[in-house]
């Protein structure tokens, strides 16, 4: 039998008052206890730190006052309750999606940076690439497994040397974001064929032979064997020899 304990009404009231004081915007002439002032300062610095750590490219596009305004608005408007760094980062993403003053390019950049962060903290094991010791002539003897940290994203801009480039307006650019076996973050520009084949693999094991059938429907003269070897070496996927 499970016993449920209810928090005393006074405690609930005190917590609500504390949260309201912590989240409230600072106004001219307002006074609060030294402890509350210090705690408000620490919380705001922590949230601003997460914003600049997880979304550095976006923060480069705005000034310090904008970062402070976003931090204040987040505390005042968004009911996040999880204090962990990664939870705050996700809550900031959800909050910024709702900000009408942000452009579609800003939101795409924010989504891209959050995905990079998600790949970075993903605790999935990435195996070292298996050396191709023989030509992939017998595709039925090989299974294909996608990198477990792989995220694919379509962006309305290119990423060049870690910076967004807005030269090709109106054109979507596809990227793979993933972690290699040595935990290094990596990104690779993808073609539409890359996206289709990687989507076909998904998160399951698929035989190279079955993937070859998929490739033949996408592009008749597409060299799947070369594609598999290249992406095995780049660690977007792993090749597993049967037997």
Descriptive report:
It is built from nine helices and eight strands. The chain has helices spanning 9-23, 34-54, 56-60, 64-77, 85-97, 104-121, 192-201, 208-218, 224-233; strands at residues 142-146, 151-155, 158-160, 163-165, 173-179, 185-190, 206-207, 237-241. The protein has two domains: 9-121, no CATH class; 139-241, Outer Surface Protein A, domain 3 (Alpha-Beta Complex). The termini are far apart. With 243 residues, it is α+β, with helices and mostly antiparallel strands. The mean pLDDT is 81. It is elongated, with a radius of gyration of 24 Å. This is DNA-binding domain-containing protein. Keywords: DNA-binding. One of its GO terms (molecular function) is DNA binding. Residues 14-96 form the Putative DNA-binding domain.
* Relative strand content: 5-15%
Number of helices: 9
Strand order of the largest sheet: 7-1-8
Q: For the residues shown, what is the average pLDDT?
A: 81
Count the domains.
Answer: 2
- What is the radius of gyration computed over CA atoms, rounded to a whole number of angstroms? 24 Å
Number of beta-strand segments = 8
Q: Can you give the helix content as a percent range? A: 40-55%
Biggest sheet features: 3 strands, antiparallel
Regions with little confidence, pLDDT below 50 for 5+ residues: none
Helix and strand string, N-terminal first?
A: HHHHHHEEEEEEHEHHE
Distance between the termini: 52 Å
Shape: elongated
Q: Based on helices, strands and strand pairing, what is the structural class?
A: alpha+beta
């Amino acid at each position: 039998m499970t016993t449920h304990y209810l928090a005393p009404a006074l405690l609930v009231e005190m917590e609500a008052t504390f949260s309201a004081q912590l989240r409230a915007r600072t106004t001219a002439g307002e006074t609060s206890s030294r402890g509350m002032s210090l705690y408000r300062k620490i919380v705001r610095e922590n949230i601003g730190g997460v914003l600049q750590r997880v979304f550095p490219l976006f923060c480069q596009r705005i000034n310090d006052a904008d970062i402070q305004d976003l931090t204040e608005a987040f505390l005042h408007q968004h009911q996040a309750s999880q204090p962990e760094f990664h939870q705050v980062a996700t809550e900031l993403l959800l909050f910024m999606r709702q900000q009408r003053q942000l452009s579609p390019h800003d939101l795409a950049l924010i989504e891209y940076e959050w995905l990079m962060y998600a790949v970075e903290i993903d605790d999935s094991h990435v195996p070292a690439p298996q050396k191709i010791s023989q030509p992939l002539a017998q595709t039925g003897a090989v299974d294909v497994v996608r990198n477990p940290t792989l995220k694919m994203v379509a962006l309305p801009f290119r990423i060049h040397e870690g910076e967004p480039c807005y030269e090709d307006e109106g054109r979507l650019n596809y990227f793979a974001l993933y972690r290699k076996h040595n935990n290094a973050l990596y990104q690779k520009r993808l073609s539409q064929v890359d996206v289709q084949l990687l989507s076909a693999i998904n998160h399951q094991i698929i035989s190279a032979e079955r993937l070859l059938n998929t490739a033949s429907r996408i592009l008749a003269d597409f060299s799947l064997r070369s594609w598999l070897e290249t992406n095995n070496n780049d660690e977007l996927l792993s090749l597993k020899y049967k037997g």
